[in-house]
Amino acid sequence: MKSPLEILQTRFGYGSFRLQQESIIQSVLQGKDTFALMPTGGGKSLCYQIPALIFEGLTVVISPLIALMKDQVDALRLNGVPAAFLNSTQSSSEQDAIIARVQSGELKLLYLAPESSFFRRIGSFKVSLIAIDEAHCISHWGHDFRPEYLMLAQLKRTMPNVPVIALTATADRVTQKDIIQKLELNNPAVFVSSFNRANIRYTVEQKKKSFEKLLGFLQTRRDDSGIIYCLSRTSTESLAADLAREGFNVLPYHAGMDKDQRAKHQEMFLRDQVKIMVATIAFGMGIDKSNVRYVVHMDLPKNIESYYQETGRAGRDGLESEALLYYTYADVSKMKKFVEIEGNNAQTEIYLKKLNQMAAYGDLVTCRRKYLLNYFDEPAPDHCGNCDICLTQVEREDGTVLAQKLLSAVTRLQERFGAGYVIDFLRGSHSGKIMDDHKALKTFGVGADVSKDQWNAIVRDLLAQGYLAKSEGTYPVLKLTARSQAALFGRERVMLVSSKEKRETVMHEPAADHEGPLFQLLKKLRWTLAEEENVAAYIVLSDASLKELAT
Ligand code: ADP
Ligand code: MG
């Protein structure tokens, strides 16, 4: 008899188990009722497929998605696993043929829809295991209740000695309990895997000039596979067309397209013949593509469950991947209007609550991963280190002395100069006639040990914290504030972003290409401005850039 690990390696071609797969399989093999909560893409299927190959009799798999059964069965057959499905799309002679294979003991796995009439006869077959996939469908508390699932409680009553494994990717604590109770599981072993997808980096950007931002994002990822979700069918088509015009290998996908074309687009994506799928949420259910490197949302999903599922399609191979959301509150208002039209009832209330929780994700100033995990009742540390918030909200250290140098330079220069000049003065740059007049001032050159970039970052930081202000107009100059005095006279300790981390801000800057230097520079500048809209006044062209501009 082969061990589960041997089967994993020889039949399925994987090196090692993931998450809690192995413990779950052991529990099932010991004949225990088992409840397994594992994120999408976590590998739930193997938790019953491997036991199915070890047990003597038949493993019955209940799945709500008739459309996906065929794919799953085909995939198993490719691995040489004798599997079949029974559902209403088959003729009665096809069904009879499959039942004959069950009777002969040839089949190891049989997939069924929960409403299948086969259940009436199930007692007469040698069943070793019942696997209930998408088990949350039995609970009113889950997000996808299906009344047919309620019938499944019968299974445990008719076959009390056959172990049942219930599997789901979405169930909070209340739903978990409800599933276990409704299925009448007998003292089940419960496995809850973490929902954390550590290899996915979560980023939110303002939905403003989102097409330009998207181009910048895609520029460095031309060879990667990705999914871009849009709310409407028409926008998937127009965005796909716009991206194609920019030279991207892209196709649209939505439920309004004809069936053959949809299947073709999906197939091409799976085979890497097309890199980008611009799709509505109709795309992705059951899509098993391991190397999706990014999932972009052009519009706000309607709740966190959907967002988590959709972004979960990235990085199934465990490699670094990105989830990028373009967020604006206008999307929330728009979606609220939809439901308001539909009227007011309990359903609407839940919808609105979930929509607000989704919107709150876009507005976060704390770790996004923590928020997602807490949403699913999973504890998480305050900082994950792999979301935009954690990567940009950085360590602060005492910068009082640096702040004082800068503020006294502004004072000495009588609040008449912009950041560029103040920094040159601090660094002791000798160029120019005006500087000659200022050389004799006391703070001239006291900041020579700090780079220009660093001084610029310090100015931004002081502005953001109100230690400095800037005037309006074409040539803004640095001004002192009440808080400047507190810092200058040492009444307040100034905490600055530590210099080590200043450069970690995520930037999606277009990669260099064959366009001319002037174009390049302007493009670069545009991206810098787009990234830092609030501090546009402090983007100073470097001498090198100016020279480049002149050529
Ligand atoms: P789920 O049902 O939990 O969403 P699946 O069972 O469909 O996930 O598995 C997702 C993908 O991960 C599949 O491609 C599957 O073959 C793969 N997979 C499962 N277990 C492993 C493993 N131990 N090592 C590598 N890949 C795995
Ligand atoms: Mg699954």
TrEMBL record:
The keyword Iron does not apply. The keyword rRNA processing does not apply. Its EC number is 5.6.2.4. Residues 210-358 form the Helicase C-terminal domain. It is an enzyme of class 5 (isomerase). Its cofactor is Mg(2+); Zn(2+). Belongs to the helicase family. RecQ subfamily. This is DNA helicase RecQ. It comes from Chryseolinea lacunae. The gene is recQ.
